[in-house]
Fold:
Amino acid sequence: MKNESMSRRAFIKTTSAGAIAASQIIAPAYAFNLQGNTQSGKLAALGGKAIRSNKNWPEWPYRDQNVLDEIMKTTKSGIWCRIQSKTGTVPTFEKKYAEMIGVKRCVAVGSGTQALHTSVEALGLGPGDEIITSPYTDPGTIASILSARALPVLADLDRRSFQLDPDDVERRINENTKAIMPVHMMGQPAHMERFMQIAKKHKLLVIEDACQAHFAKYQGKTLGTIGDVGCFSHQSSKVLSCGEGGSIVGNDEELMEKCYTVQNHGTSKFGRTETIGPKYRMNEFEGAILLGQLPTVLERHALRNKNAKYLTSKIKDIPGIYPQKLYEGTEEGSFYLYCMSYDKKLYNGADRSKYFKALAAEGISLSPYIKNGLHKEPWVDNIINRKVYQKMYTPQRLEQFKEEMVCPNCDIVCDEEMVMLWASGPLLGTQEDMDDVINALTKVYENRDQLNKV
Structure:
């Protein structure tokens, strides 16, 4: 009968998420034939027909004629360094980006790591100070702390949000703790309400690592504007990218002036060398690429949020795969990554690697993102054996530091649960592209009895 051949894609387009959720019988809710697939009951990895084939995701990094025009204009101008002109691409980007974020000042630098390190230095944090942050992040997060010769203390995660756990952060505060560096993982807000409460209670600074979280909003505020200072990355995979690059945003004019001075090898805007600082200036070509994207970047931001909302509305009803938990007050995400948690118990105990292999054969490539948390990397032994750290911290503190480098929730996320779709480009796709993702996830669940054969 015609109704029996109804495709999963057609079902997605015609059935509300509420109707799916209302079903109390899991198996029939997913018993659909897939359009054009005569082997819908067989995984592609085992010889069935793939859900998605010969299709490309939107190209990334994003570029259009406006971006190319800005690059050409800069090339012809001969102004390739920000100190050549007060109205060059970098100063202009700083002004426009600050307006878009909703802050008084922006200082552009060469990377997100540089933005974080500049902020740490500008806030006067250094030897003897401790900064609590996440083990589940790019190494640049702790590199910014180590570069200032402060001590990165890693707290564990909330397993479902992949974000720093406020309770574990508070447990690790001591007399040397001077700041918290929450990381807005995947471009979604960390639990900033709690972190700001903790910071106020213990008189701590808050540096927002918003490197993945451009234009994301939480409780009416744009990420990067909630703490004392906010930092972004503009590396090529990010949603606002220029190859490499970073920016610092804030409302404290004095602090932002210090940030400018630090990243300008310690030289202030008055031309006087006033403090210790590296040379982290963003170049004019990076500024041009960023400027070229600003007129349309919020359109792409809105499309990612629309597609992510659609994915979540469908995926939340597929057993054993859970969209990233969002904290109350989350309004928009950057969706640098679209992430989920995998529960192998509902997939006949199949290891996550088999799940990835099955989905890849269906034409949907997902990955685990970070192999292991930073608490398991060699830097820990490296610093406690360095003379500079041995001079700054007692043997007892360094021993305790290593002993407490334990983050079991992070280990589970890394080893078993994290499933992510890189989203900067893919979430700019069509609803049909999103349906391919949903169909592939659904097909693998329906055929979970085959997973251990993959």
Observations:
- The longest strand covers residues 337-342.
- The chain has two domains: 3-59+296-370+413-453, 65-294.
- Residues 93 and 291 are 6 Å apart (CA to CA).
